[in-house]
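Quick one:
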Amino acid sequence: MFIIDGNNLLHTIHKVEEISSFSDIELCRNLSAFLKRTGQSGEIIFDGAGPRDTSPYDNIENLEVSFAGIGQDADSVIEEKIAVSTSPKRLNIISSDRRLRKAARTRKAASVKSEDFWINVTKQLNKKRPVKEPKEKRSGLSESETEQWLDIFGINQ
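Output:
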């Protein structure tokens, strides 16, 4: 289970990719695709109250999107999640924030710097997915399909 410091990761992407137009919704869509490919799930927490209309976040799979709320930051929310987790060793905390990395270490949760995590995400998303072989390749055609092809090509048995 990934718990991601959204603003920290977004800031890292802007710095690493040298693009300022990458939005939080684009980040969530990319993370969703990554999590789907790797068969994992995660939660991303952004600072602040979030937008009034959260409907763009509704169709994001494998990733729960939340906002810390008014007067609270994502770091505090993530710290609390680490503290109350019944299985902290299963958590992967994604942030370059020393405070969060220390909280993760204290509970023996894994922590990954945002830059390293983003490099892994982009590698996974840029990998070509293997093309599925048709089942016929391994099992062959049925007898009726074979006869059809022989008829089409005018081959007599």
